[in-house]
Design brief:
It is a single chain. By secondary structure, the chain is of the alpha+beta class. The chain contains two helices and nine strands. Strands 2, 3, 5, 6, 8 and 9 form a six-stranded mixed β-sheet that branches. A three-stranded antiparallel β-sheet has the order 1-4-7, with no helix packed on it. A hairpin with a 4-residue loop joins strand 8 and strand 9. It is globular, with a radius of gyration of 19 Å. The chain starts with a helix and ends with a strand. GO terms for molecular function: monooxygenase activity. This is Lytic polysaccharide monooxygenase.
Length: 201
């Protein structure tokens, strides 16, 4: 009886320790945009199928910071350079369809929203958009983007709440399908988080 009690206590202790590791960020990965909806969230919520590992961890698109001078390589911007999330880089979805888009209007205010699984000290949030006439037939590159952000939100090293919204004016002179690249730069690591959102102006 006593041995069973000790075994039960040990198992309970291991389960508690495992839960603690998970709750304190044992998993890698920490945030994504849901306004406008990002490719990783479209994969996670089942709107886009065949995405591979990203469907279970949309918050994990983490890569080197310093974009556009540094950061992920061209052709790997939407995956943050994480090869296991390479499906996000495709010009089309893994099943060959167009990426679903969010309708937006140039020159109007838009509220961007991030969801965080771990709230890191933050330098800023920056948003880039593709140029008019960009090449939609390949994975996103710096040449496809206006590499001056149309919106920068400084955050001064603070930790964001679990959900963070901020507004900015969308650029004018764009029509048709474009990609907005959101970059969340972490203050106390060498990394940033990347989110590609397909939109129609």
């Amino acid at each position: 009886m006593r041995t069973k009690g000790k075994l039960y206590a040990a198992v309970l202790g291991l389960a508690t320790a495992g839960a603690f590791v998970l709750s304190t960020g044992g998993a890698s990965g920490h945030g994504y945009t849901d306004l406008p909806i990002s490719r990783q969230l479209l994969c996670a919520d089942g709107t886009v199928r065949g995405c591979g590992e990203i469907q279970w961890e949309p918050q994990s698109v983490e890569g080197p910071k310093g974009f556009p001078a540094g950061g992920p390589a061209d052709g790997q911007l939407c995956s943050g350079g994480e090869t296991r999330f390479g499906q996000l880089d495709g010009a089309r979805t893994p099943r060959g369809a167009e990426w679903p888009t969010t309708k937006v209007t140039g020159g109007q205010s838009y509220t961007f929203r991030w969801q965080f699984e771990a709230r890191h000290a933050t330098t800023d949030f920056r948003y880039y958009v593709t140029r008019q006439g960009w090449n939609q037939g390949h994975a996103l590159t710096r040449a496809d983007l206006n590499t001056t952000p149309f919106l920068t939100v400084p955050y001064g090293g603070k930790q964001p709440p679990a959900t963070l919204s901020h507004s900015g004016t969308l650029p004018t002179g764009l029509s048709g399908h474009h990609v907005i690249l959101g970059v969340w730069t972490i203050a106390d690591t060498g990394n940033a988080f990347y989110a590609c959102s397909d939109v129609t102006f």
